[in-house]
Write a structure and sequence with these properties.
alpha/beta, TIM Barrel, eight-stranded mixed β-barrel, globular
Length: about 475
């Protein structure tokens, strides 16, 4: 059977087009591969139906699709995302559709290079990786002229960098492609492992857990299993957080529905025995080590002369807090003046939940305005602690790390250094280790001897300290690096 040449060409064109249309930016966890060629894709779709056997009122969250990588993490969001996990009440089957895309790359010559020139680029580039042109180009027969230039790795997917080079005695500039991947799993901050609900309560999992991703500002939370808040009982579920590159973190949760939640009470308790300041100072005394406290309105009226006489060397005090607006600590001015009059070294901290660049810049300005040129001995402390439901802020781990760097730069404009406060867990899994090379670290770890192995300059070792001059508990701090004080 014979066909005309034009008809065969038409059929081939249709066949070729049917295999096209893959987004070059739809790159999941596939490491390696050349980056100069276009990508071809094959897509397989698997559909799983989960029957809901509950006949009474049942809360079920449907598994949502992972968004395409090109649509995520491109815009800073200032509103909390309250739909990270969708909670619905249903008695119909839940259908989950998972689409898996396999991308292959053809090795072709970069058309931007002169004839005979060859340039190969690094594979497996991780998002936010520190990279220069000389490290990007792994093999070539050209002489690079801009090898020390930084390469942007802030965007997952295909990117372009300009290289300047000499080839056969002539100078050239060419754009070369490279691919950035995100292979890190979302970080589980608060698993909400055991949840107790009262019968009849609504259940929205995102309100009980906390998670974050290094790149994706809005990772998706889903769970499998049924929770019937209309019937007392124990309901095991499996929660999963998925980022825009398809990386997942899963864990088990037990939801307990009870007829009534006890209000507690019944006496007991009593005042805290506390940790005497003088005992801590004696036990941890060492060369170039000094001891202090940090305070806020919760310590009430403080006799700083007695605090000084008890052997205290310094006081870090809260200047205020920021959420949706600024609240100056009602005891700040009297604390600052009282501590200075007693001859104590002083510093201040702002408790903040700022989650945009503009808010960070505003935080620094507000602090500077409130200080009005007041001399401090310690750097201004950035105190960001609202991690239990971190996803509500719609920012990534990288975002908050960069916001602290911005805060430090802004404080420097006003003549103040900056210091980062955080717990052992946050410094281990959230804050970048590189921050400690540029700014002092104030570690919070309530134990007799911290096992944190990273660099820190001051240690908040107790929140139940007792010192003459303060009625009640107070945080006790040990300063190991006197150089952070002016």
């Amino acid at each position: 059977m014979k066909f005309k040449k034009s008809y065969i060409t038409y059929i081939l064109a249709i066949a070729m087009l049917s295999g096209c249309g893959a987004d070059d930016n739809s790159i999941a966890k596939q490491a390696g591969g050349e980056v100069y060629s276009s990508a071809s894709s094959t897509t397989a779709t698997t559909t799983t139906t989960v029957e809901n056997s509950t006949t009474t009122t049942t809360t079920v969250t449907k598994i949502t699709e992972v968004s395409d990588i090109a649509t995520e993490s491109s815009t800073t969001t200032t509103e909390a995302d309250t739909t990270s996990a969708t909670t619905t009440t249903t008695t119909t089957p839940v259908t989950t559709t998972t689409t898996a895309t396999t991308t292959t790359k053809d090795k072709t010559k970069n058309p931007g290079l002169p004839s005979g020139a060859k340039v190969e680029v690094k594979k497996d580039i991780e998002v936010y990786e520190s990279l220069t042109v000389s490290k990007l180009v792994t093999s070539s027969n050209v002489k690079l002229k801009n090898g020390s230039d930084n390469v942007n790795t802030d965007k997952v997917g295909r990117n372009t960098a300009t290289i300047s080079y000499t080839y056969n005695g002539k100078d050239y500039k060419s754009d070369i492609e490279y691919t950035v991947y995100d292979t890190q799993k979302p970080l589980l901050i608060n698993g909400g492992w055991n949840i107790t609900l009262e019968k009849g309560d609504s259940f929205n999992l995102t309100e009980w857990v906390g998670y974050a991703d290094n790149y994706d500002r809005n990772p998706k939370l889903t769970y499998t299993g049924d929770v019937n808040t209309g019937k007392a009982g124990t309901y095991p579920i499996k929660a999963t957080v998925t980022d825009s590159s398809g990386n997942t973190t899963s864990w088990d949760i037990e939801v307990n529905v009870v007829n009534e939640i006890s209000s507690g009470g019944g006496g007991g308790g009593g005042a805290s025995s506390g940790m005497p300041f003088e005992t801590i100072k004696k036990d941890y005394a060492s060369a170039n080590v000094s001891f202090g406290i940090d305070v806020s309105k919760w310590q009430g009226d403080i006799d700083f002369n007695k605090v000084k006489a008890a052997g205290c060397d310094f006081v870090i005090m809260r200047i205020g807090r920021y959420g949706t607006d600024y609240q100056k600590d009602v005891c700040f001015e009297q604390n600052l003046q009282g501590a200075k009059d007693a001859g104590l070294k002083v510093g201040v901290y702002l408790y903040t939940t700022a989650n945009t660049r503009d808010e960070i810049i505003s935080n620094a300005k507000w602090i500077a305005d409130e200080l009005d040129g007041e001399k401090l001995d310690f750097p201004v402390v950035f105190d960001w602690e609202s991690f239990d439901n971190f996803q509500q802020y719609c920012i990534s781990i990288h975002d908050l790390n960069s916001y602290y760097e911005l805060f430090a730069k802004e404080m420097d404009k006003y003549g103040y250094d900056a210091m980062l406060y955080g717990s052992k867990n946050r410094f281990t899994s959230f804050w970048y280790e590189s921050l400690s090379s540029n700014h002092p670290i104030w570690l919070a770890h309530y134990t007799s001897q911290t096992d944190y192995t990273g660099k820190y300059d001051m240690w908040q070792m107790s929140c139940t300290g007792r010192i003459d001059g303060i009625d009640g508990d107070v945080d006790i701090d040990i300063l190991y690096n006197p150089d952070i004080c002016k």
